[in-house]
C-alpha cells in the first residue's frame, strides 16, 4: 500500500513539473489532459487508500530525514489515517474535476500551460499538508498552498488588481503563519518532537496554561488560511484569480486547511474547551458577518466567496465545540457543492464575457439550462434543504451548538442559515431568471462546452447524495476522531430540524418572491446599513488607512529621516570632525622654529602633568 | 591531503599573481578555471572531511615567530567547512556571471586576492594571521568598488574601508590584551585560538574584551546602527562586488561571533545577550521597513541583507545547538540567495542601466525566464519551506524561542515584513503592463547568465529539501563548542543558562 501513498502524493508533483517544461510555450492541449490524468491517478490512489484504511487501519510511512539539528529531528513522514484519507479523497476528487473543467475554461488563455503547472503544484502542496505526520511537514504544505495561491490569484499578473490581491493574500497569511510558527516552537521546546502521535500523547500530561498557549498560536495560523475575522479580507479579493482557482483553492480545499488543523489537533483542543468555545464563537460570528456581506453584494464571485467565509465559520463552530467529525463532514460536503457553485459561476462568466455584476445578467436560464440547474442544485445544497448534502452537515452543526447549551451560537447560526438561503437564491434569481439585462450590453450568452458540463455532473450528484453517507462517514472517521454525543430528545431534534428547514425555505421563498417581482427598491441603497454592508463594514478601508498607509509613511520616515539624516549623518559627522581637526591642526606644522619650540613646551607640560597625576599600573 | 588547507588559502592568490602574465583576452577563462579548481579543492576537502570528528581537521601548524608564540596554524571544522565552500563557490559563480569588460584583468586578480583573504579568515586558527586576513580583505574590495563602481564609487569605497577598518582596530587591541593575559596565566606566549579557548578570563575583563571584538564584528555584519556603509557599498559596487560582499564578506562578522565572541567570552556573551538580541530585532524590523521604502531594486536587497543578518545574530546568541547551527546554515543560505539576487539585479542593470523599480514593470511578460529565477530566489529569501531559506530561519528562531518568546515573536515579524518588501518589489518590477518602451525588447537570460544562475537555483532547492548532511556536520562542531562554553564559564549562572536553553521542556 505504501506505493499508493507515494503515487497519490507525487503524481501531482510530476504533473506540475512535466507541464512546467512547456510553461513558456503557447497553449498545448496535451498539457491540460496530462495534468488532469495525473491528478486523476492521484485520485484513484486516494480511493484505493480509502478502501485500504477502511479495511486495515492507518498507514504510516517515513520517506527520509529532513532537518536535523540539536535535539530537533524532522522527517518527511506521511500518515494516511481516517482523517487524512478523507481529505485526500475530497481534495483529489475536486481537483480532478477542476482540472478537466479548466481545459475548457482556460481554452483561450495564452498561459494555458503555466496555469496547469501551478494548479497541479497546488494539489501537491495540499496533499503534503493533509498527509504529513508532523507539524512542520504540515507547515510545508501550509506555505506551499500559500505560494500556489499567490501564483494563481495573480495569474493574470498584468492586471494591477490581481497582483495586488495576490500579495495581500500572501502577506495576510504570513501574519497568521507567524502565530503558527510560534506554536510550533512552543511544541518543540515542550515535547522535543513535532510528530503528531508523540505531541498528542505528551499534551495530556502538560500544564493547561501551556496547552492553551499552543492552542491559541495554532489557531492564529488557522485563522489566516481559513480567512477568519480579522484576517478575512484577502479571500474576497482573491476572486481576482481565474474562477477554477476560486473553486478549488478559495472554496473547496485550501481555505479549509485551518479547519483541518483544528480537527487534526482535536486531542489538543479537547483539553482546552474554553479555547474551543472561543473558536466556536468566532466561527459563529463570521458565519453571520460574512453572510450579511453576501446579502447585498452584486459581484457574482464575491457573493460566493462571502458564502465560503460564512460556511467556514460553521465548520469552526463544530470543530470548536468538539464535534470534529461533523466539522469534517461539513468540510467535505461543502467542498462538493461550493466548488460546483463556483464552476457554474465560471460558466456564467464565460457566457457573459467576464462580466461579474449580477445586476447586468438575468434570464440566463434560457440560454444555459444545464448550468442553471447545476447551480440551483448547489444553492439548494448550500441552503441546507432536505435531501441535499448541506442539509445533513449544516443541520448537525446547529444541533451541536444547541446541544452544547450555546444558544447564542445556535441562534447566530440559525439566522445565518436564513441569510444563506436568501443570498443563494438572490443570486440564482438575478442571474438566471427575471429580465434579460444583458441584452442592453449586447452580449449573446452561450452554454459551456458539453465536456465541461459533464465534468460538473459528479459534483452535482455528490451535492445531492453526499448527505446520505452521514452514518458510514461517522463510523469511519470516529475510529480516529472522538465521538460526539448528542443528548437531545428526539422531539427537540425534530423541532430543530424543522426550525432550520423552515427558516431556510422561507429565505428561499422570500428571495424568489422578491426577485421575481423586480427586487428591492433603489432607495434602500441609501440606507446606512446598506452602505455598511456593501463596503464590507469599511474594514478594507480601515486596513488601508490605519495599517498600510502608516506603515508606508513610517518606512519612508525611517529611511529618509532616521537612516539618512541621523544614523548616517552621525557617521559622516565623525569623519568630518576628524578631517577638520586634521585640517586645522596642520597649521601647527608651520616650519617656523619659534612656533615649534612653543608647541614643544606645551607638549612637555602636558606630558609632565600626565606623569604626575596618572601613574601607570606597575 | 596534508597541505590542502594551505593550498586552498594561497592557490587563488598565487594564481592571481600569475594572472598578470595572462593575455587580456583569455583572463576571464583563466579566472573561471582558477576559481573552479579552487572550488573543487574545497569539495575535495569536504569529501575528505571526517564527519564524525567534531574537532579541527587537516591541521597545519608551523611556528612563525616562536618567541611571541605566533604560528602559522590552519584547521577546519564543521563550522568553517561550509563557509569555505560557500566562498569558493560564490567566487566561481560570480566569475561566470561577470559582464565587465574594462580593465577586466585587474578586476579578476583583485577578486582572486579577495578569495585568498576570505578562505584565510575561515581557515586560520592563529589570531594574528586572522587579523591580517581580516584587514587584507578590505583592500581588494576597496579597489573593486573604487575602480569599477558607479558615480559615487570613491565616496562609497572609502567609507567602506575606513568604517570597517576603524572597527577592527579595537579588535587588534583586544587580541594583544588576550595574548598578554594568556602569557600572564601560563607563562608562555600564544596566539593560537585553541589555546585561547582554554583560557578563563575574569568577568570584567571579558566584558571589555567582548566589547572590543563586538565593534569589529558588528560593523562587518553589519548591525544597527553601524550599517550605513552597506547601502552605499552595494549601491556603488559592480555586480561582482555586491555578490561577494553580501554572500561572503558579511559572514565574516557573524562567523566572528561564533568563533571568537562565544567561546572566548561565554560569560560576557550571556551577559550581553539581551542587548544584542534587541539590536538584532531592531535590525530585522527596521531594515525590513527601510527596504520597503526603497525605490532602487538593489537597495531593497541590500537592506534585506541587514534584516536577514539580524536573524543570524539572534540565532547565534540563542546559545543552543538549534540556534547556532541554524544561524550558520542561514549564513550559507543567505550567501546563496543574496548572491543570486544581486546577480539578478546585475542582469537587468546590464540591459537597462537602471535599477529603479519604477523604470520596470511587466518584466514577467518580456523576460519569463528571468522572472522565474527571480521568483524562486524571492521565495527562498522570504523563507518558504523546501527552499534553502526556510531551514536556517526556522532553526534560528526556534533556538531563540527557548531564550525569550516575545523577542522571537518580534524577530519573527521579519517573515511578514520580508514578504511585504519582496512581494512589493516583485509586483512593481515584474507584474503589470510593460509601460516603458525600452522594456519591450528586453532579451531573456542568455546562456552565460543561465550557467551562473542554474547552480544557484539547484542549490536553493536541493539544500532546502535535504539540508541534513550539512546540518549534522555543523551541529557536531557546534555541540562541541557548547560543551566548551558550559565548562569554561566562570559564573555558574552562565553554565546553568547554557544547559537550560539546550534542554527540552520547561519553557513558558
The percentage of residues in β strands of chain B lies in under 5%
Helix content of chain B: over 70%
Biggest sheet descriptor of chain A? 2 strands, antiparallel
Cα(first) to Cα(last) distance of chain B is 49 Å
Query: Ranges of chain A with pLDDT <50 over ≥5 residues?
Result: none
Name the strands of the widest sheet of chain B in spatial order: 1-2
User: What is Rg of chain A?
Assistant: 30 Å
Query: Structural class per helix/strand content of chain A?
Result: mainly alpha
The best one-word shape of chain B is globular
| Shape summary of chain A | globular
Structural notes for this entry:
The complex is a heterodimer of chains A (618) and B (508). With 618 residues, chain A is mainly alpha-helical. Chain A has 24 helices and 2 strands. Chain B has a domain of 237 residues. Helices cover 75% and strands 3% of the residues of chain B. Chain B has 22 helices and 2 strands. Chain B has a two-stranded antiparallel ribbon. The N and C termini of chain B lie far apart (49 Å). In chain B, 63% of the residues are buried. At the A-B interface, β1, α5, α6 and α23 of A face α7, α13, α15, α17 and α18 of B.
List its salient traits:
heterodimer, A: 618 residues, mainly alpha, two-stranded antiparallel sheet, 24 helices, globular, B: 508 residues, two-stranded antiparallel ribbon, 22 helices, 75% helix, 3% strand
Amino acid at each position: 500500500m505504501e506505493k499508493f501513498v507515494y503515487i497519490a502524493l507525487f503524481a501531482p508533483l510530476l504533473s506540475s513539473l512535466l507541464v512546467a517544461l512547456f510553461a513558456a510555450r503557447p497553449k498545448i492541449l496535451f498539457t491540460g489532459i496530462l495534468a488532469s490524468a495525473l491528478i486523476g491517478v492521484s485520485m484513484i490512489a486516494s480511493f484505493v487508500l480509502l478502501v485500504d484504511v477502511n479495511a486495515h487501519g492507518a498507514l504510516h510511512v517515513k520517506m527520509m530525514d529532513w532537518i536535523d539539528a540539536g535535539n530537533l529531528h524532522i522527517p518527511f513522514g506521511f500518515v494516511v489515517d481516517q482523517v487524512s484519507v478523507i481529505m485526500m479523497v475530497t481534495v483529489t476528487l475536486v481537483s480532478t474535476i477542476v482540472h478537466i473543467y479548466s481545459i475548457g475554461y482556460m481554452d483561450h488563455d495564452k498561459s494555458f500551460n503555466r496555469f496547469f503547472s501551478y494548479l497541479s503544484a497546488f494539489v501537491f502542496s495540499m496533499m503534503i499538508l493533509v498527509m504529513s505526520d508532523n507539524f512542520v511537514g504540515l507547515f510545508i504544505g501550509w506555505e506551499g498552498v500559500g505560494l500556489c495561491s499567490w501564483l494563481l490569484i495573480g495569474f493574470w499578473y498584468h492586471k494591477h488588481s490581481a497582483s495586488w490581491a495576490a500579495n495581500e493574500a500572501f502577506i495576510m497569511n504570513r501574519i497568521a503563519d507567524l502565530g503558527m510558527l510560534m506554536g510550533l516552537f512552543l511544541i518543540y521546546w515542550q515535547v522535543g518532537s513535532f510528530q503528531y502521535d508523540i505531541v498528542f500523547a505528551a499534551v495530556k500530561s502538560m500544564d493547561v496554561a501551556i496547552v492553551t498557549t499552543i492552542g491559541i498560536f495554532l489557531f492564529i495560523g488557522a485563522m489566516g488560511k481559513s480567512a477568519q475575522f480579522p484576517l478575512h479580507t484577502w479571500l474576497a479579493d482573491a476572486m481576482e484569480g481565474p474562477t477554477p482557482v476560486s473553486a478549488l483553492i478559495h472554496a473547496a480545499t485550501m481555505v479549509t486547511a485551518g479547519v483541518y488543523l483544528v480537527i487534526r489537533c482535536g486531542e489538543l483542543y479537547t483539553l482546552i474547551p474554553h479555547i474551543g468555545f472561543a473558536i466556536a464563537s468566532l466561527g459563529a460570528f463570521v458565519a453571520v458577518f460574512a453572510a450579511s456581506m453576501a446579502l447585498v453584494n452584486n459581484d457574482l464571485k464575491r457573493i460566493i466567496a462571502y458564502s465560503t467565509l460564512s460556511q467556514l465559520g460553521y465548520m469552526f463552530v463544530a470543530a470548536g465545540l468538539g464535534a470534529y467529525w461533523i466539522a469534517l463532514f461539513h468540510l467535505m460536503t461543502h467542498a462538493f457543492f461550493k466548488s460546483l457553485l463556483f464552476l457554474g459561476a465560471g460558466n456564467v462568466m464565460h457566457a457573459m464575457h467576464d462580466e461579474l455584476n449580477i445586476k447586468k445578467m438575468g434570464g440566463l436560464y434560457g440560454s444555459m439550462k444545464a448550468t442553471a440547474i447545476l447551480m440551483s442544485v448547489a444553492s439548494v445544497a448550500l441552503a441546507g434543504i432536505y435531501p441535499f448534502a448541506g442539509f445533513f452537515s449544516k443541520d448537525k452543526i446547529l444541533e451541536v451548538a444547541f446541544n452544547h447549551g450555546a444558544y447564542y451560537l445556535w441562534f447566530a447560526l440559525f439566522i445565518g442559515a436564513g441569510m444563506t438561503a436568501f443570498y443563494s437564491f438572490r443570486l440564482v434569481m438575478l442571474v438566471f431568471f427575471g429580465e434579460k439585462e444583458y441584452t442592453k450590453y449586447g452580449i449573446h450568452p452561450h452554454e459551456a462546452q458539453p465536456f465541461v458540463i459533464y465534468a460538473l455532473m459528479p459534483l452535482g450528484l455528490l451535492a445531492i447524495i453526499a448527505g446520505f453517507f452521514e452514518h458510514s462517514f461517522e463510523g469511519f472517521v470516529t475510529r480516529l476522531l472522538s465521538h460526539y454525543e448528542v443528548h437531545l430528545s428526539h422531539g427537540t431534534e425534530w423541532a430543530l430540524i424543522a426550525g432550520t428547514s423552515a427558516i431556510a425555505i422561507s429565505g428561499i421563498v422570500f428571495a424568489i418572491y422578491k426577485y421575481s417581482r423586480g427586487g428591492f427598491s433603489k432607495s434602500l441603497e441609501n440606507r446606512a446599513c446598506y452602505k455598511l454592508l456593501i463596503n464590507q463594514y469599511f474594514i478594507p478601508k480601515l486596513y488601508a488607512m490605519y495599517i498600510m498607509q502608516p506603515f508606508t509613511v513610517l518606512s519612508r520616515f525611517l529611511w529618509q529621516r532616521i537612516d539618512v539624516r541621523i544614523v548616517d549623518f552621525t557617521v559622516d559627522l565623525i569623519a568630518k570632525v576628524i578631517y577638520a581637526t586634521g585640517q586645522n591642526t596642520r597649521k601647527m606644522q608651520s616650519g617656523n622654529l619659534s612656533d615649534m619650540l612653543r608647541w614643544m613646551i606645551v607638549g612637555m607640560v602636558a606630558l609632565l602633568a600626565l606623569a604626575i597625576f596618572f601613574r601607570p599600573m606597575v | 591531503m596534508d597541505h590542502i588547507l594551505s593550498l586552498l588559502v594561497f592557490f587563488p592568490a598565487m594564481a592571481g599573481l600569475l594572472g598578470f602574465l595572462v593575455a587580456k583576452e583569455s583572463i576571464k577563462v583563466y579566472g573561471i578555471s582558477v576559481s573552479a579548481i579552487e572550488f573543487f579543492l574545497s569539495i575535495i576537502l569536504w569529501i575528505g572531511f571526517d564527519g564524525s570528528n567534531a574537532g579541527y581537521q587537516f591541521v597545519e601548524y608551523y611556528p612563525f615567530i616562536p618567541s611571541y608564540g605566533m604560528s602559522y596554524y590552519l584547521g577546519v571544522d564543521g563550522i568553517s567547512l561550509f563557509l569555505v565552500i560557500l566562498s569558493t563557490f560564490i567566487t566561481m559563480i560570480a566569475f561566470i556571471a561577470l559582464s565587465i569588460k574594462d580593465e577586466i584583468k585587474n578586476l579578476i586578480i583583485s577578486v582572486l586576492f579577495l578569495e585568498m583573504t576570505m578562505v584565510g579568515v575561515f581557515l586560520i586558527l592563529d589570531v594574528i594571521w586572522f587579523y591580517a586576513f581580516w584587514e587584507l580583505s578590505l583592500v581588494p574590495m576597496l579597489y573593486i568598488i573604487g575602480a569599477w563602481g558607479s558615480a559615487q564609487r570613491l565616496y562609497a569605497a572609502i567609507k567602506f574601508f575606513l568604517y570597517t577598518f576603524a572597527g577592527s582596530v579595537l579588535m587588534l587591541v583586544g587580541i594583544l590584551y588576550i595574548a598578554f593575559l594568556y602569557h600572564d596565566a601560563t607563562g608562555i606566549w600564544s596566539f593560537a585560538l585553541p589555546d585561547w579557548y582554554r583560557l578563563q578570563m575574569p568577568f570584567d575583563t571579558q566584558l571589555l574584551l567582548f566589547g572590543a571584538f563586538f565593534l569589529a564584528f558588528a560593523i562587518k555584519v553589519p548591525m544597527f546602527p553601524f550599517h550605513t556603509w552597506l547601502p552605499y557599498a552595494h549601491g556603488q559596487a559592480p555586480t561582482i562586488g555586491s555578490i561577494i560582499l553580501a554572500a561572503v564578506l558579511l559572514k565574516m562578522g557573524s562567523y566572528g561571533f561564533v568563533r571568537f565572541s562565544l567561546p572566548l567570552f561565554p560569560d560576557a556573551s550571556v551577559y550581553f545577550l539581551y542587548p544584542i538580541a534587541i539590536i538584532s530585532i531592531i535590525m530585522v524590523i527596521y531594515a525590513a521597513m527601510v527596504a520597503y521604502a526603497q525605490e532602487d531594486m538593489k537597495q531593497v536587497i541590500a537592506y534585506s541583507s541587514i534584516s536577514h543578518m539580524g536573524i543570524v545574530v539572534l540565532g547565534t546568541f540563542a546559545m543552543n545547538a538549534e540556534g547556532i547551527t541554524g544561524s550558520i546554515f542561514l549564513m550559507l543560505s543567505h550567501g546563496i540567495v543574496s548572491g543570486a539576487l544581486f546577480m539578478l539585479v546585475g542582469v537587468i542593470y546590464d540591459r537597462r542601466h537602471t535599477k529603479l523599480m519604477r523604470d520596470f514593470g511587466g518584466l514577467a511578460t518580456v523576460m519569463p525566464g528571468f522572472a522565474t529565477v527571480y521568483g524562486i530566489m524571492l521565495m527562498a529569501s522570504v523563507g518558504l519551506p523546501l527552499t534553502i531559506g526556510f531551514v536556517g530561519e526556522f532553526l534560528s528562531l526556534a533556538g531563540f524561542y527557548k531564550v525569550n518568546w516575545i523577542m522571537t515573536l518580534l524577530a519573527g515579524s521579519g517573515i511578514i515584513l520580508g514578504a511585504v518588501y519582496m512581494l512589493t518589489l516583485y509586483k512593481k518590477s515584474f507584474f503589470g503592463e510593460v509601460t516603458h518602451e525600452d522594456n519591450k525588447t528586453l532579451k531573456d537570460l542568455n546562456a552565460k547568465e543561465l550557467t551562473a544562475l542554474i547552480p544557484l537555483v539547484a542549490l536553493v532547492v536541493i539544500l532546502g529539501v535535504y539540508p541534513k548532511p550539512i546540518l549534522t556536520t555543523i551541529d557536531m562542531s557546534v555541540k562541541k563548542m557548547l560543551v566548551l562554553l558550559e565548562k569554561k564559564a566562570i559564573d555558574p549562572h552562565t553554565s546553568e543558562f547554557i544547559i537550560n536553553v539546550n534542554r527540552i521542556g520547561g519553557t513558558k
